[in-house]
Amino acid sequence: MRERVVVLGPPGAGKGTQCKLLAAARGLLHLSTGDLLRAEVDAESSLGQQVKAVVARGDLVSDDLVLAIVRNRLAIHREGWLLDGFPRNSTQAAMLDDLLADLGQPLRVALQLQVPEEELVARLLVRGRCDDSEVVVRRRLQIYARETEPINAHYQARELLKCVDGLGSVEDVATRIGNSLDEREHGEETIC
User: Fold this and answer.
1) Is 164 annotated as a binding-site member?
2) C-alpha distances in Å from residue 123, one per residue of 8, 145, 176
3) What is the pLDDT of residues 134-156, one digit of tens each?
4) How far apart are CA 36 and CA 131, in angstroms?
5) Does 12 belong to an annotated binding site?
6) Within a domain: residue 53?
């Protein structure tokens, strides 16, 4: 079965690291929305010019524009993929559902990396930007809890959400993610 995976989790949960490992281990296309946006700008595509103009104004890239970029990549890649950094809110999750239905590429699973808040704060302070303070880090986590965390319910209602413990070594977490995907394939899954 072709794996189509959305990887969710708060800042500091290790999504980017785990996505790179998972993509390499399973031959999946890793779609990081941040990387996709930068690639479109670098390629000076029509979408890239729109992104560049939005960023130059200091605005956030709209859901529609992000979705158009994701559509372009998924329309030409029919094999397995994983999305990192998208969707970020309930509106985007619904838009992604419609896009995937239109492309005939149903989502297989939404993996939620779970890490306690204090561990997230510690991770973000260690690897963060020089201007990151504990107050700034906790604010980012509050924004995540308010805007992004509610999409867990969206995927749980569709019986697609799987929670994975994000504590431990990078290798241990990667093993748990792989086991979680294999359980789903064999009908032995445990949903959050």
Assistant:
1) no
2) 17, 17, 20
3) 998 998 899 899 999 999 999 99
4) 26
5) yes
6) yes
How far, in Å, CA of 27 to CA of 47, rounded?
27
Residues 24, 4: Cα–Cα separation, whole Å: 14
3-state secondary structure of 5: strand
Q: Residue 13 annotated as binding?
A: yes
* Tokens coding 59: 């605005």
Q: How deeply is 177 buried, as exposed, middle or buried, from its count of CB atoms within 10 A (0-12, 13-18, 19+)?
A: buried
Asked whether residue 92 is marked as a ligand-binding residue, the answer is yes
Q: How many domains does the chain have?
A: 1
Q: What's the mean pLDDT in 49-73?
A: 85
Point out the least confidently predicted range of 34-38, 101-105, 157-161. Answer: 34-38
* Structural domain contains residue 55: yes
Give the domain extent around 152: 4-183
Model confidence over 6-44: pLDDT tens digits?
999 999 999 999 999 999 999 999 999 888 888 888 998
166 known member of a binding site? no
61 annotated as a binding-site residue: yes
CA distance 104 to 70: 14
59 is known to lie in a ligand binding site: yes
According to the annotation, is 64 in a ligand binding site? no
127 annotated as a binding-site residue: yes
103 is in an annotated binding site: no
87 is in an annotated binding site: yes
- Judge whether 14 is annotated as a binding position: yes
